[in-house]
Amino acid sequence: MEQENKRRHVPVSLVVFLGMLAAIAPLSTDMYLPALPEMMGNFNVSSSMVQLTLTFSMAGMAAGQLFAGPVSDEKGRRMPLLTAMVVFAVSTLGCFFSNTVYVFLLCRLIQGLSGGAGIVIARAVVRDVASGPALMRLFSMLMLVNGLAPVLGPVIGGQILRFFSWRGVFGFLFLIALCLTAGAAVFRETLKEKKKVTGGITESIKNYRPLFKDSYFMGHCLMQCFSFAAFFGYISGSSFVFQNVYHVSAQTYSYIFGINGIGLLLTGALTGRLAGHIAEWKLLRVALTAAFSGSLVLLAGFIIHAPLFVIAVTIFITVSTLSAMGSASFSLAMQKQGKSAGGAAALIGFFSLISGAVMAPVVGIGGSDTALPMGIIIVVGEAGALLMFYKFIYTHHKDEHKDEA
Q1: Do 359 and 186 touch, CB atoms closer than 8 A?
Q2: Is the pTM higher than 0.90?
Q3: Contact 161/285 with Cβ under 8 angstroms?
Q4: Contact at 8 Å (CB) between 85 and 118?
Q5: Residue 275's beta-bridge partner residues?
Q6: CA terminus-to-terminus distance, the chain
Q7: What would you measure as the largest C-alpha separation in the chain, in angstroms?
Q8: CA–CA gap between residue 129 and residue 175 (Å, rounded)
Q9: Nearest to 118 by CA among 55, 49, 71
Q10: Does the pLDDT of residue 392 top 50, yes or no?
Q11: What's the CA gap between 381 and 233, in Å, rounded?
């Protein structure tokens, strides 16, 4: 018990640093969303092509996590993290100087690969230092810090665009990358020698096999795959929907996006407060049900051309559930993952991002002047997430439900 209590006392500086690492994804995507229409004209490409910049980044993050997770289990957390942050900074600088969309896509891919390493190692560190309800509380705290990114990112991006071109956004992101690199340089190893996976990185990657055979764990992976498909449908399509369909400015769009980020922040805080008081799987069910209900209302709103206020409120309710879903699902999925925490976190991260990489250009297929593709993708994603929950996750907890009844 004494050892467990010690594991719960995590320095605030570490929580903030881990939150910044976990925020790499929203920082790399949300901050330049207001600039997507401008970039489409600057590079003289279609909306689907400019949305591929999101795809390349998220695909890189997904692949980077698959590799970095086992590497961090074998080599420790610190050195892989420091290497990844150096590459992340350099690739971000490459994005700033890109003169063609193809060079930009390459830099985004490398940026995603290195950023994905930071994301998965941050999650593995959380598992290194906490377990049980403490794990969910710590992950919720991490989500709180992470939640600031979608709040501040588009707002900062929108303000930067008032004075600079889209390159200014990546100049600011480069400064953030330098801060992350400095943090990684002073980071202290959390994976003890006796816990490291032995047998080489190849053996570490082979440890994915039992995870694929674990229906409960894979249920969480598939559920997050669908849920994040809906979320990234919103991420990649909202800029065009609000600016081209509802004709708001880049600054107004950034404020709307930021308010939705506050929703993510609030649900993350609420989930942390409820940890240990309400069963995690129940919190997960509520979050998924609310998201699916909201998505149906949103699609109906797009079909009947509902006013901007109605659409904004519905999106707020639908999107805000993601933090609660992520915190509860990650905690449940990682409970039995010890020495292979890096690999397990990598698989969860891979499934949550790869769907986003696929969905980003799909949203733009219908053109940049319609909201229906985004609405349909969000509904399909939330429906799939709820289905995966009842098929693979609820079945493991229904006995608890019967006992309470």
Answers
A1: no
A2: no
A3: no
A4: yes
A5: 278
A6: 31
A7: 63
A8: 29
A9: 71
A10: yes
A11: 9
